[in-house]
Amino acid sequence: METTLKSRETMHRLCGKGLEIFNEKGYYNTSLDDILTQLSLSKGAFYHHFKSKEDYFISIVQNLIVQKVYALLIEPLNTEENPLPIIVDSLENALEPGKKNEMAYGFMLNDFLTEFNKRNEEISGYLKDILNVWEVNLVSVLKKGKLDGYIARHVDCEGVATYIIASYLGMRSLMMDSSNRQLKYQYVQQLKHYFKSLEPQPVMA
Amino acid sequence: METTLKSRETMHRLCGKGLEIFNEKGYYNTSLDDILTQLSLSKGAFYHHFKSKEDYFISIVQNLIVQKVYALLIEPLNTEENPLPIIVDSLENALEPGKKNEMAYGFMLNDFLTEFNKRNEEISGYLKDILNVWEVNLVSVLKKGKLDGYIARHVDCEGVATYIIASYLGMRSLMMDSSNRQLKYQYVQQLKHYFKSLEPQPVMA
DNA sequence: ATCCGAACCGACTTGCGGGTCGGTCAAGTG
DNA sequence: CACTTGACCGACCCGCAAGTCGGTTCGGAT
């Protein structure tokens, strides 16, 4: 049906622009009209496609945010090599401010998590689910790295995953305005140092 | 003057309760009436003491939050000993959920930073200032630790401070609901590992 | 006793933003 | 051509919360 196509097209435009503006200004600080004006759409159009602002955002989370996290943070982990440099690369890449005109996708998680925490349990839940998936994948790739001899046996993989996630999320609060080159560089350097401490100690001859 | 005393007393009560509730529910999700009801005060009383909600929160930041951060995160750094375990202790202590009936002060910074970022530049500014002071103090104690031989010479103290702050702030996003014992334990453990990599290499005999 | 002004009260105004609803338009369908 | 239906329009409704303002209370100064 052509009608369905049109409909999907509009929903896609709404979700895309919504993510962009919510990411820029925050969910509660963005009115629907802010978005609708930019798309030259009306309230009526919006409520034809979504049953509420909340429902709308959940669509965005499930369609777009999940994808971005997978693409940037989870799929890169799928490797046979030493996982530690792979993780560094994925984090460095995810912290990269929007290439060209795109958004700084890597930043969204911490912002949204904090914004919805204690304000909207349902949305919070979806966001935490994403974090959990990430964590599980990190743990699994770390354990694999241990088996393959890239990581020392004494290492607590769950703890490492937690620490990685915490430091990554926290960088967001620091890089707020200026997508500061310097901060990112410092972060990556220290992450590498930390990772070095996870490597097996070379046996002294 | 007794009048002035009464006035101060009321302002203190307002600030204290305000911090408590803003910390619980967020600034924008808390109405003045939420606070005033609990204190059995009126709008009139409030606007007699503060010129706006924003002005009110700035008072809270400058009177209470600054104090907490100093007490928990900055003053403990004032030591002649090895700074690394001191830093671990201060962070562990700051992540401790409210002892007895007090608030979980250690959590506030990341929440408020994220909430005001891009919504209120002035308040954002005050909060960033606090972070900056913390960072400066961290850097200085790290440099001192380097001089005293507790930290390896190659270490980038600014980078380490950034990384410490990032991981601390990020823990907040993870510890949202459950002030999860496990998470905190993992964090402290990994922090210690990381710090070990900053120590000077013992010279092999 | 009188007055002043600080502290406080609470009904009201105002603006914002989510959500509603009756309507228009155009693309099928029979 | 008559009729339906999906996509969309935009004026309106309504609740919420910040901020206003005229009034009240009360301690202390003259």
Largest interface: A-B, 47 and 47 residues
- Please tell me the total number of domains of chain A: 2
| Count of strand segments of chain A | 0
Q: Briefly note the structural class of the backbone of chain A.
A: mainly alpha
Instruction: Please give the CATH architecture of the largest domain in chain A.
Output: Orthogonal Bundle
Walk me through what this model shows:
Chains A, B: This is TetR family transcriptional regulator. Chains A, B: InterPro entries: Homeodomain-like_sf, HTH_TetR, Tet_transcr_reg_TetR-rel_C_sf. Two copies of one chain form a homodimer. Chain A has 205 residues and is an all-alpha fold. The first copy, chain A, is 70% helix and 0% strand. Chain A has nine helices and no strands. Chain A starts with a helix and ends in a 9-residue tail after the last helix. At the A-B interface, helix 6, helix 7, helix 8 and helix 9 of A face helix 6, helix 7, helix 8 and helix 9 of B.
